[in-house]
């Protein structure tokens, strides 16, 4: 057991290897969006995805203080009350885990085994980060800003408080929030109470929960989560590239009704309006295409109105299910920067930022009499 | 695929068979209690376990009506407003899924693969069911009362709305509620909005969500969920016994901090106060024992105050972790009826009502300098 705790490299499953109890244990803790919840513009509390590296810590809101230190003109120590008295902003933001889709990859990197449900959209209320950093006064030598949470654990042999760094340019973007409310209520414990960072457009790892410290650095941040965990690489021994902004993705709300065990959908022949959501942290979504033949042919879906730059966008597509039989429904998003979801898996060693198109198996049946 | 949908018997995994994608897909949807949330008397919204057989339906609360029909003197059709104007009661109830522990069984019945996290405690507010049934007037010929939800799906070849029956005696017990609030807010969609049954003491399958109809029957209810799904049996071809009330169980809040991938706990040598919860639907909890040597020896834990008959009870135990090395922590509950948690698995063909003792692997280490 101790040997396993000291393994420094994540494992890749054998090609025919099923899911392990370790992976199942993570899946049982880290909850995903039930896909029928794609019907909601804003994900109701309890259905937003949740990824917790270690344990959900208990943080006393009354005693909570956020420290801002390092390469600043003046250090700050801010109470929750002080934070709440600052400028108040609410932003609708779609967050997605960087590991979403990992369990669909072949071979499968062994970690939290998301299929495609690690996403959610919330109304986050808080205060913009940039004015607070301006108040502290970043020194001209400032390079990165590190955000440290109260959550503590061991990961590949490294004991740590969860921490992530952003460049000064990224950290001072106007959309970053120190959030203390989610969907109009105080942050639930599992989403980072009392205060978390929300970095719109970035995969969820950047939005540090249970925030306790902001440290301005004169060197690039070299913490585990930036330099080891959230990296795109093909082999274990290369440094790789950082995981950053959310790649375009569309998901469809599975039509009809499910079989309990397989989650295969049953739909009657006839017309169905397929609906779903699409998002990209890289640029606004410009289009969604749907395939009802497993990706052989594609047709344009209709986009709903934008709900702001950082929230997913609804889409719909009329499907005539003419003949009984099996079908596979797919959808894919494109953004204004020309990024398109791939139909071939974007495999990488740690299973990061996979936006492989979703495949929804359905059985079309003759109308029941 | 169609053949798989028509399988009428649930499968049992081969002894060495790992978790399938079908099981993982269910685990990704059906969220469990993160064990550190055992610290809360009342589970915060979003951390209570959730088991949804089919899809979470969208039910319009404004148009919602509860029908009461069958062997009654007068049929009723009740709006949400009318329901809310009736006697209002709040009860703290621990609910547990009947499938909790299934994925620990060897061989493993293939279904929703819970480890031990399918539990939660909420404050349910609603109106007692018994007076409403009295108002409808049960005929002397009444035998069972069936509760039908709006959730629709296919299960082992049977298309159905989720429905469960209770005997008249069980259905008219004073503790049963038609609940419309959870922890002081309207029921979230995933917990049965706008109204669900809450049957304290029973495994969760009895507490029908998205309730739409109550039917009083003059014959025993023969629906799938009573006669096929929730049965205790050793072989696939026997009828088995019904799953009813929650067997005693204790869980401990894992101490120390976790390794990300294995969830193994790291604790320093020295004194630790182990805490947890215990419950039984069969009788009040009378004791909890703790083992720090994997079940070889047991010692009594201290019980906290009762929080009412239907809620879990806290307990604590002082553990002196004297020597560095691996250890396995266990706990087991006993109730006033003399039911004790087993240390050998209570295996059955469908993996129901397993209350096998929890095992929490820890690594004790010398204090860090």
UniProtKB/TrEMBL annotation, chains A, B:
Pfam families from the UniProt entry: Mo-co_dimer, Oxidored_molyb
Oxidoreductase molybdopterin-binding domain segment(s): 53-224
Keywords tagged on the record: Metal-binding, Molybdenum, Oxidoreductase
Signal peptide: none
Cofactor(s) annotated in UniProt: Mo-molybdopterin
Domain (Moybdenum cofactor oxidoreductase dimerisation): residue spans on this chain: 270-363
Keyword match Metal-binding: yes
The protein, known as: Sulfite oxidase
């Amino acid at each position: 057991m101790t040997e396993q705790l000291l393994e420094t490299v994540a494992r890749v499953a054998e090609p025919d290897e099923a899911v392990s109890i370790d992976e199942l244990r993570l899946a049982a803790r880290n909850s995903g969006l039930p896909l029928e919840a794609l019907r909601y513009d804003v994900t109701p509390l309890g259905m937003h995805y949740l990824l917790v590296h270690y344990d959900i810590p208990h943080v006393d809101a009354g005693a909570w203080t956020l420290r801002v230190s390092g390469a600043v003109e003046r250090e700050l120590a801010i109470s929750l009350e002080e934070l709440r008295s600052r400028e108040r902003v609410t932003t609708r933001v779609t967050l997605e885990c960087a590991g979403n889709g990992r369990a669909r990859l072949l071979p499968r990197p062994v970690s939290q085994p998301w299929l495609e449900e690690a996403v959610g959209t919330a109304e986050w209320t808080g205060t913009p980060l940039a004015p607070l950093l301006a108040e502290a006064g970043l020194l001209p030598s400032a390079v990165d800003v590190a955000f440290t949470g109260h959550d503590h654990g061991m990961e590949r042999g490294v004991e740590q408080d969860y921490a992530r760094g952003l460049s000064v340019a990224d950290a001072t973007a106007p959309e970053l929030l120190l959030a203390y409310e989610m969907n109009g209520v105080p942050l639930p414990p599992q989403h980072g109470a009392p205060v978390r960072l929300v970095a719109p457009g970035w995969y969820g790892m950047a939005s540090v929960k249970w925030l306790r410290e902001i440290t301005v650095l004169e060197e690039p941040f070299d913490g585990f989560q930036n330099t080891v965990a959230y990296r795109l690489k093909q082999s274990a021994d290369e440094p790789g590239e950082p995981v950053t902004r959310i790649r375009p993705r569309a998901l469809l709300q599975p039509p009809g009704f499910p079989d309990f065990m397989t989650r295969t959908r049953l739909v009657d022949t006839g017309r169905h309006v397929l609906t779903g959501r699409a998002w990209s942290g890289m640029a606004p979504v410009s289009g969604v295409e749907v395939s009802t033949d497993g990706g052989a042919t594609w047709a344009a879906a209709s986009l709903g109105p934008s709900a702001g730059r950082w929230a997913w966008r609804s889409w719909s597509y009329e499907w005539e299910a003419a003949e009984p039989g099996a079908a596979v429904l797919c959808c894919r998003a494109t953004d204004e920067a020309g990024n398109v979801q791939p139909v071939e898996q974007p495999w990488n060693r740690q299973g990061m930022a996979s936006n492989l198109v979703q495949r929804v198996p359905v059985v079309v049946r003759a109308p029941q009499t």
